[in-house]
Design goal:
The chain contains 25 helices and 20 strands. Strand 11 and strand 12 form a beta hairpin. Bound molecules: flavin-adenine dinucleotide. Flavin-adenine dinucleotide (FAD) binds next to helix 4 and helix 24.
């Protein structure tokens, strides 16, 4: 009896302890994080000149001293691409005072704009799709200060055309084929104009076309989007063991996950479309947006891109540079600052916690208890390796990666003052020029070829024609056109160690640039805009080595890691790292493209601020919900 009594009381004790632990844990997990400080929205009437000046604030010691709050910054963000800026602006909306450090001369990373002899050029955001979540995110991180408008060239009865896929001629026996991608008529069901275009071009392959378009449209459904959202919600729960996280991903994010594990080509074959045939090539016409060739590209991203643009395209008023400029205004309003020409080359670590960073200018150190790195997953881990043994993680990152495509650019400036108004080119769609279909075979040929021997696969676009705010900033007589081609790294690798001065002095590099200019000019510009030749005032080439300079890349890889099946299972691609206070963000941890990089910045801000606790994740509550009156963005 006595023994029974003792056991009962120890059981009671155990039960009570268990209940206490459960209550505390549940409270911690389910309590939304409180708003940290009061946030004052930025003044909406800041001029473009003021915003622009603040987007080029070079780091100096005196500026740093002046900008540092008395009690220091709350967070440091390495890299001012869309993800870093979005993470900083999201935290700023909770009142965090962030210090953004960008090694380039402008804020924006892949979304930055730069000036060439008075002409503004976009670099890495040529168009956006129609994504409710992306637009909500942009609005959230800019406090509603960004306007986005439909873009494209009007096509009779089909609405605006945003992309035109042009295939051929490969040789003199071949012909040119054009495929317009349009938004469709007002009020029409999403995807119908795409379906109509494919059916009109491939009347004998009706059932394949119907199946293809139906599958693309599934990717815009709530169910599929929730499946993708679960992959990212589980990334937020970084404390879950990697194996368990992967197992849960396979269940909760099943539709999206399955698409990550099959290549675009294999998926097309699975629905009976030959990826090398003409229909297959048109279905793959936007694959270059995803940065890796079709036999390696994950279907999740392949279909994601088509679904993103199937209902037309949009562009920020004020150009892609408006994105970092407006987010920077939000960061500053909360007491933060963004500096350019600030290359972070080390972390400050004390007591096994990050305490700040070292910037390579006079080895200035800047302190904050939170450091978010948006510079890419591998460079972020390499920075960590000085302090923590992360050999295993680095080899895991390397073994699941291949750099994405490197582009080479021709930037063309035009002064059209003397062009009669009625002759002005009003087209604003992107032209994708493919010398032939069979894209994978073509890319392999390109990799093995000498520079500019083969006819080139090109993208031709005019930034000035897409930006609804262009005339206000630059008047109506300046026009800009960009021609892009893929550039195998082997074509430029021999000059990789030269600095700008060395490259300017290198005859080999300069003659490579001249050959590039000639090829992109003849095959790109002159094919699309021959009537504008007489208005050209300048042509400049940017190579993958230029990309390395502006975006701190290694192989000119424009989209970071390649979105191949093996990339998705890499357990390191989450915000949490082995060092307390040090977090990752960026397209490598999300997906490439503006939508994916914004989502990754927001995801990391949720985790850092404590908003991504289990209870919030389950209830789809987000950082935006912690701000009065803001609905969840991905909920
Ligand atoms: C040519 C091109 C065309 C594209 N077209 C489109 C498009 O039309 N639509 C679309 O949605 N997306 C497009 N993208 C993709 C989009 O631009 C990227 O996905 C996006 O910019 C990724 O954002 P991010 O913040 O993750 O990385 P990034 O934009 O690469 O930003 C990372 C930043 O970190 C900085 N950095 C790196 N190391 C350090 C360091 N040690 N210290 C300080 N700073 C550092 C870099 O300089 C860079 O500014 C394009 C990209 C390119 C390059």
């Amino acid at each position: 009896m006595n023994t029974l009594n003792t056991m009962t009381s120890s059981n009671k004790l155990l039960l009570a302890a268990g209940a206490a632990v459960t209550t505390v844990t549940l409270t911690i997990l389910f309590t939304p994080s409180p708003v940290k400080r009061k946030f004052v929205p930025p003044p909406p009437n800041e001029t473009y000149e003021e915003e622009d000046k603040n987007a080029r604030l070079r780091l100096t010691e005196s500026r740093l001293k002046k900008a540092t709050p008395d009690d220091g910054f709350d967070a440091i963000i390495i890299g001012a691409g869309p993800s870093g800026m979005c993470a900083a602006a999201s935290l700023a909306r909770l009142g965090y005072r962030c210090c953004v450090l960008e090694q380039g001369e402008e804020l924006g990373g892949g979304a930055h704009v730069f000036s060439l002899k008075g002409y503004e050029f976009e670099t890495g955001v040529h168009y956006l799709g129609t994504d409710v979540e992306m637009e909500k995110m942009l609005s959230f991180a800019t406090c509603g200060m960004i306007d986005i408008a439909d873009i494209g060239t009007p096509v009779e009865g089909e609405g605006l055309m945003h992309d035109e896929i042009i295939i051929g001629p490969w040789d003199k026996n071949d012909t040119e084929r054009r495929y317009p991608f349009t938004k469709g008529k007002d009020g029409e069901k999403e995807g119908e104009s795409f379906r109509r275009m494919l059916l009109s071009k491939f009347p004998d392959e009706k059932s394949k076309v119907e199946r293809f378009v139906d599958e693309v449209m599934k990717c815009r459904s709530y169910k599929y989007k929730q499946s993708a959202a679960w992959l990212f919600r589980l990334k937020a729960l970084s404390w879950l063991p990697a194996g368990l996280r992967l197992a849960l991903t396979k269940v909760l994010a099943r539709d999206f996950w399955n698409h990550t594990q099959i290549t675009a080509e294999d998926w097309l074959r699975s629905i009976d479309i030959d990826p090398s045939g003409e229909l297959g090539s048109v279905c793959l016409g936007q694959y270059s947006d995803a940065g890796v060739r079709p036999d390696e590209l994950s279907t999740a991203l392949y279909l994601g891109v088509i679904a993103h643009y199937i209902n037309g395209a949009r562009y920020p008023i004020g150009g892609s540079g408006a994105i970092p400029r407006k987010m920077n205004a939000v960061i500053r309003a909360a007491g933060g600052v963004s500096f350019t020409q600030a290359y972070v080359n080390a972390l400050v670590v004390e007591n096994k916690k990050v305490q700040g960073v070292v910037v390579n200018k006079n080895n200035v150190s800047i302190r904050a208890p939170i450091v978010i790195n948006s510079a890419g997953a591998l460079p972020s881990y390499e920075l960590l390796s000085e302090h923590v043994n992360v050999d295993k993680q680095i080899s895991s990152l390397k073994s699941t990666d291949k750099p994405s495509v490197a582009f080479i650019f021709l930037f063309v400036s035009l002064d059209i003052t003397k062009q009669p108004e009625k002759e002005r080119d009003e087209t604003s769609h992107n032209r994708w020029i493919y010398p032939k279909g069979e894209f994978t075979a073509y890319e392999k040929e390109l990799d093995d070829s000498e520079p500019w021997v083969l006819p080139q696969r090109l993208f031709v676009a005019s930034g000035s024609s897409k930006d609804g705010g262009w005339q206000t900033r630059h008047g109506k007589n300046k026009k800009t056109i960009v021609v892009l081609a893929a550039c195998p790294w082997s074509w430029v690798s021999e000059w990789k160690d030269l600095d700008k001065k060395g490259r300017d002095a290198s005859k080999g590099y300069q003659s490579f640039k001249e050959a590039t200019k000639k090829c992109l000019w003849e095959q790109g510009f002159m094919r699309v805009y021959p009537h504008l030749e007489k208005y050209v005032v300048d042509k400049e080439v940017g190579t993958p080595l230029t990309t390395n300079n502006f975006l701190a890349k290694v192989h000119g890889e424009c989209y970071g890691r390649s979105a191949m099946p093996m990339h998705w299972g890499c357990p390191e691609l989450v915000p949490k790292t082995p060092l307390s206070g040090y977090w990752l963000t960026g397209q490598d941890t999300g997906t490439l493209g503006l939508a994916g990089s914004l989502a990754s910045g927001y995801l990391t801000a949720n985790v850092v601020s404590g908003c991504a606790r289990l209870g919030n994740v389950i209830r789809a509550l987000e950082l935006s919900s912690a701000i009065q009156g803001e609905e969840a963005i991905y909920g």
